[in-house]
Structure formats: structure tokens, C-alpha cells
């Protein structure tokens, strides 16, 4: 499935994400990591921490509705893979981000933005993993 | 007040992710498909994010403390160890199979699309499974 090259909207969206990460650090002193948000919600501990993560998640989940109101259409989601691929890939992603301690947001943006060696190593590794599995899935297996 | 700012920051993050195309598996997978239908857009997402977050973090972390809290919560480990590398590699492999990453999928939950719900359900299963595995490993180490 061919997708359109969108350097401007992608860079604009990226800048919004970078601004959100900066604001969360400036106001609340926290890393913006999707893994940490979901992981923390699954582990009820400190009530304030839990509520904070719930508020971040609620904001994220409200975003498509905001875009629908502003632009008149839902953001595009095209899924070119099978249901088993989504389910198996999802479990594998969950195990990976747990042991890796973060994902594209926590390591890829927040960690790299403060030049953390661990995050740079993690980012290079998960990018390599994704290149590898896309190559295998599309060009070797042909799924 | 704190919950309201957290909600608004989550909203900004989610809107950015959606506008950027990070919630669209077709686009994400094409970024990694250099040998096929390559779409380099996602490089601009990370570029744009770092363009803001690098100077933003520099400015913010140079201050004594965040506005609402007593201190910054930053990871103190510096070691590049096996769990970090093996976990990140595993994450990457799964990302390339499903096309969603956690930060892309969470905002997409708001579209109500079944594929997103399935992915997030599987993600939660994976996180719980990993925690169970880690607890088993720690118990074995303690009793050994």
C-alpha cells in the first residue's frame, strides 16, 4: 500500500509532540512515555501518580475527537496487516517495551532529547528491529 | 489544575501524533520498507519533535524544579545492559509486525477502531506477561 510523503504535516505533528514532552517536564517534571503511562496504570500505587497518568491518557484519547471537530474528519488509520499480526505484534511490543524500559516516545523523543546513552542505544536497536521485521514480513514471507 | 494541564498536554501529544501519521500503520510500515513502498515521512516526525524537545529540555532542566512538583523525575540508570537491548530489539520486531507502537496506538484509541483496540489489548497482555516473567526470574534468583 503506497502512502503519501508528508514532510510538512509530519514535522508539524512531531513539533507538537516535542512541545508536549517539554511542557510535561516543565510543569510536572516527568518524561512523556507511552509505555510508562500504560504500565503505571496497570500498577496501582501512588494515587496522585495514577490520576496523572489517567489524565494524560484521557487527553490522548480525546485527540481524534478534537481533530474531527477542527478538520471535519477522523485521522486516517490504514491497517495493511492481518488480525493475527496485530495481536502477536502487540504482545511482542508489550514484552519488549517492558524490558527495554520505554518506546518511541520515552526513549525516542524524551531520552534522546537529553542525550541519554541508554535511549540512543534503545532507539537504534528498535529501529533496526523494525527494519528487519518489515523486510522479513514483506519481502521474505510476503505477508 | 494539575490534572487539567496533564489532560491538555496529553491532548497536544495525541493531536501531534495523529497529524504526524504515527497512528497510521500503513505509513509507519512504509517508513521501514526501504526496499518497497518507502515513505520517509516519519523521519520528519522525530526530527520535528527533537527540534523542539532538545532546546526545550535544555531550558527546562536548567531550572531548579518543575512548576508543580518538588523535583524532576529522571531515570538514574546509565548502563546499557542486556534487558535494554534485548527488550528494544523485541519491541522493534513487534512494531514492524503490527505497525503500531504504544505512543501511536493510545491516541488512536479515540477513533474507536477495532484494530486499535485489539492492539492495545495485546500490548497490555504483553506488559502483564513481561511483569510475570520478571517476577519469576527474580524469585528464582532469590531462592537459588
From TrEMBL, chain A:
<keyword id="KW-0813">Transport</keyword>
<keyword id="KW-1003">Cell membrane</keyword>
<keyword id="KW-0472">Membrane</keyword>
<dbReference type="InterPro" id="IPR007272">
    <property type="entry name" value="Sulf_transp_TsuA/YedE"/>
</dbReference>
<feature type="transmembrane region" description="Helical">
    <location>
        <begin position="12"/>
        <end position="42"/>
    </location>
</feature>
<feature type="transmembrane region" description="Helical">
    <location>
        <begin position="120"/>
        <end position="141"/>
    </location>
</feature>
<feature type="transmembrane region" description="Helical">
    <location>
        <begin position="77"/>
        <end position="99"/>
    </location>
</feature>
<comment type="similarity">
    <text>Belongs to the TsuA/YedE (TC 9.B.102) family.</text>
</comment>
<keyword id="KW-0997">Cell inner membrane</keyword>
<protein>
    <recommendedName>
        <fullName>Sulphur transport domain-containing protein</fullName>
    </recommendedName>
</protein>
<feature type="transmembrane region" description="Helical">
    <location>
        <begin position="54"/>
        <end position="71"/>
    </location>
</feature>
<keyword id="KW-1133">Transmembrane helix</keyword>
<keyword id="KW-0812">Transmembrane</keyword>
<dbReference type="GO" id="GO:0005886">
    <property type="term" value="C:plasma membrane"/>
</dbReference>
Automatic annotation (TrEMBL), chain B:
<feature type="transmembrane region" description="Helical">
    <location>
        <begin position="116"/>
        <end position="133"/>
    </location>
</feature>
<protein>
    <submittedName>
        <fullName>Permease</fullName>
    </submittedName>
</protein>
<keyword id="KW-0812">Transmembrane</keyword>
<keyword id="KW-1133">Transmembrane helix</keyword>
<feature type="transmembrane region" description="Helical">
    <location>
        <begin position="41"/>
        <end position="61"/>
    </location>
</feature>
<keyword id="KW-0472">Membrane</keyword>
<dbReference type="InterPro" id="IPR046513">
    <property type="entry name" value="DUF6691"/>
</dbReference>
<feature type="transmembrane region" description="Helical">
    <location>
        <begin position="82"/>
        <end position="110"/>
    </location>
</feature>
<dbReference type="Pfam" id="PF20398">
    <property type="entry name" value="DUF6691"/>
</dbReference>
